[in-house]
Design a protein that fits this description.
With 159 residues, this protein is mainly alpha-helical. The chain has helices spanning 5-13, 32-44, 56-62, 66-79, 81-89, 136-142, 151-158, and strands spanning 96-99, 120-123. It has a two-stranded antiparallel sheet. α3 runs antiparallel to α4. It is globular. The relative contact order is 0.11. The model has no long low-confidence stretch (mean pLDDT 93).
Length: 159
């Protein structure tokens, strides 16, 4: 689920379905709730894995819009995560969720950076360890570093 053609294309190359969401724009005015509802529908339709991409924080970084970048992250926290997690919690099954940016886009440089990205893996029935909040500093403090990006999916599946 993405408004970005590149992400949709990568998904299609990986033999995934590309799900369109009305009002998905790739910026801070995207249909956040619609993306969450589309994810739930995909689960209900039998998909075991759903990828939701929200471009808004990245675009705000490119545009040097710190207030909108914060707003975009807050909207993800308000209109995407709780809707999906509420559905998953009420399914009665074990599940995992991984949350991360696809890359850093610092406001100060307005471009992509090659710095490691913070990530969080939550396993409903798994042991809880890690940090109280996720950001570049707390993620680095865990010492959990994935050297090669494609190794992150392995870590997710084995968590």
């Amino acid at each position: 689920i993405s408004a970005v053609d590149l992400i949709k294309g990568i998904g299609l190359c990986a033999k995934m379905n590309s799900i369109d969401v009305e009002g998905a724009t790739g910026n801070v005015h995207t249909n956040f709730s619609g993306k969450a509802e589309a994810a739930i529908k995909a689960f209900k339709d039998g998909h075991d894995y759903v990828y939701v991409h929200v471009e808004a924080p990245d675009e705000c970084g490119h545009r040097n819009e710190p207030e909108n970048k914060i707003k975009a992250i807050e909207l993800i926290d308000e209109k995407v995560l709780p809707i999906i997690l509420d559905y998953l919690n009420n399914c009665g099954e074990d599940y995992k969720v991984m949350i991360l940016p696809d890359h850093p886009t610092p406001i100060v440089t307005k471009t992509h950076a090659s710095d490691p990205v913070p990530f969080m893996i939550y396993h409903k029935n798994g042991e809880v360890e890690g940090v109280d909040t996720i950001n570049e500093i707390t993620a680095k403090a865990t010492g959990d570093f994935v050297e090669v990006g494609c190794g992150l999916m392995k870590e997710f599946l084995e968590a």
